[in-house]
Amino acid sequence: MAEGGFVQDQTSDNVLGSQSLDTLMLECPICVEQLRHPKSLPCLHSFCQECLASYIVNESSGKMASTSSFSCPVCRRDTEPLNQSEDKQRWAEQFPTDNLAVEMIQHLQNANTLIMCKPCEKKGNVNIPAKFWCDHIKFYFCESCKVGHHDLIHDDCEPENITERNKSATIRRKMSATECGKHKEKLEYYCEDHKILGCHKCIIVDHRKCEAVASADDFRDKIQTTKIENLLGELRKCVNAMEILIKDVEEQLHTIKEDQVTALQSLMDLRTKINERFDELQKELTDKLTASFKEEKENLDVSRKKCERLMFAMQKTLTSSQDASLKEDTVGTISLFQRGQAEVESCKALIQELEKSSRSTSLRHEYNPDILTLDTKTSLTLGTILVHQQQRKLPNTAALSERQLKMTRKINIKVPTDEKDCALYGVVLLSGGRIVVGDDANHKVKLFTENGDFKCEVQLSEALCDLCRVDDNTVAVTLYEDKTICTVNITDLTLTVISKIKIQNVTENCLGITYNNNTFVFGTVTSLYSVPQNGGEATMLHNIESRCLHLASDKVNGRVFASIYTSDPDSVAVTRLSDGTHTDVLKVGVVKGTTGIDVDREGNVYVCGRGSHNVIQMSGDGTNVKELLTSSNEIERPRAISVCEDKVVITNASTKQQNFVHLFQLV
């Protein structure tokens, strides 16, 4: 295992700055103690043989007996043993011994043994430590004797500096893997196609057809000038991300600890007011509370340990890069570069994994207070322990950052001809910054520019709900009580109703609407329907549990997303229709009372939470969810949303904001 090649970093606040490089190199990431029988994996992370063996056995438990690999405990890279048929308890023995670590450990163990200068001893000065060793005459010298004796006689040789600082560098330099293990030749070349070092025989035999083969020195220079600093920057960002996630886990643990204390106190307060015969009931509930807490604590501890292992490994890689004595170590540079690449990729993958699995847990004790009332008919009970879980958003990290919404304008939609304050139930943002809004309170469709200039309006005969885009000059609107879909043509100066589709075979009010492949899809209180663009019988597509106030279409993939207006925990908030099937892609959690919904050109879905006063962005399959806007962004009870290119417009249902739409820019 060789280190080197990184430019020394003078950062003073490095987390591991107080520890020596040798100590860092000799620490097992699993037991966090000095390595014992160190074994090195292909990704260049080393572990105690005993720790690695236990880890392999534990990780493979519960998996199929035919499992042929395991993930590195630090970077989680998939790793195969040399002999997969051997018992998993012996896999760790198959990996090569980290000879550099062994040598360094022996050096540290002998560090307290002082070597004295031989000429000084002969003069009677037995306490003068040696600083140099001459291999030619096998003698130790202090600095004075080197100049005064050795250099006068042996001016053609240079003694080796054996001070503590240089011992470590010497050992690392001598232990660097500069020889090909297959041909016993010097490692002089690097194949970029296979990402491997090799001697000239390796290149001729195994890599003669590869396109990108360079000398090791050239590749070292290449990554030093173009990639090393970028990699170090990525490693620092990933370390910061892990620190944020670890802090978040600790805060979550603190919260549920407080929940546990509160619930237990509630149990004890109630228990003192009732008969001793409820001991068993109290014990049952206490056990359930403790078990729930323990389960969630274990889950949080696992997440924290994953983050900590990877963070410490990346910190070690960063610290290793600061060793100036390794600057000219070609093989060490490449090895450290490979290890850093693996750690950055693993950091990104771990963040994605935590985004999918992260959940918020609360513990609460509930009971009916009537049990304390005299002559009550309520059954005597100690209540129950409630465990509520919902998906939660991870705190923002540099590695998680994406485009954000920045508000650019607040537009007043109320015009002089309006008799009432607006009720903006629908909105469509078209090219050129044209904003079309549906005002249910005044039964109008209005056209504005993104600068807030009012252009024109059209009066409708009935109450309206949602709007959708048909093409760049046409929108459709639902008249919910009349069960009609109106299409409206848009020019710079006029809005004109050009058609009306009366839904004959649907008895419920028509609410949300979208246009998809020459078909309108609309929602009611209990169902989703489709109807041809030119009218006809409506076809029921899917039953829903609550009102569908808004729908959106993914024009690229032909999918339809429906928001279901509900705030019930774990109820479906967004469902997806595709090829005659439906998939529930989001449940009530970070967003409640889902209303407006739209899809951008990359397939990202934007959802308004009227009950949670926020706007989220999620992937089309619902696996990644990010909160974009909250009430702190002047978002109160958001109702409708529309996305066009890099602009987003949102309406609000709150009394204070009901006459305004907010225009945002994706930055």
Shape: elongated
Rg calculated over all Cα atoms:
35 Å
Q: State the major sheet.
A: 4 strands, antiparallel
Q: Which CATH top level class of the domain at 402-666 fits?
A: Mainly Beta
Give me the count of strands.
36
N-to-C span: 44 Å
Secondary structure: helix percent: 25-40%
Proportion of β residues?
Answer: 25-35%
Q: Please report the number of helical segments.
A: 12
CATH topology of the domain at 402-666, what is it called? Answer: Neuraminidase
Under the CATH scheme, the architecture of the domain at 402-666 is 6 Propeller
Strand order of the largest sheet: 13-36-35-34
Q: What class would the helix/strand composition place it in?
A: alpha+beta
Quaternary assembly: single chain
Mean pLDDT: 85
For this structure, what is the CATH homologous superfamily of the domain at 402-666? TolB, C-terminal domain
- What ranges have pLDDT less than 50 throughout 5 or more consecutive residues? 1-19
Description:
- The chain has 667 residues and is α+β, with helices and mostly antiparallel strands.
- Among the domains are: 230-399, Up-down Bundle (Ferritin); 402-666, Neuraminidase, CATH 2.120.10.30.
- Helix 9 (216-226) crosses helix 12 (330-357), helix 10 packs antiparallel against helix 11 and helix 10 packs parallel to helix 12 (330-357).
- The protein is elongated and about 115 Å long.
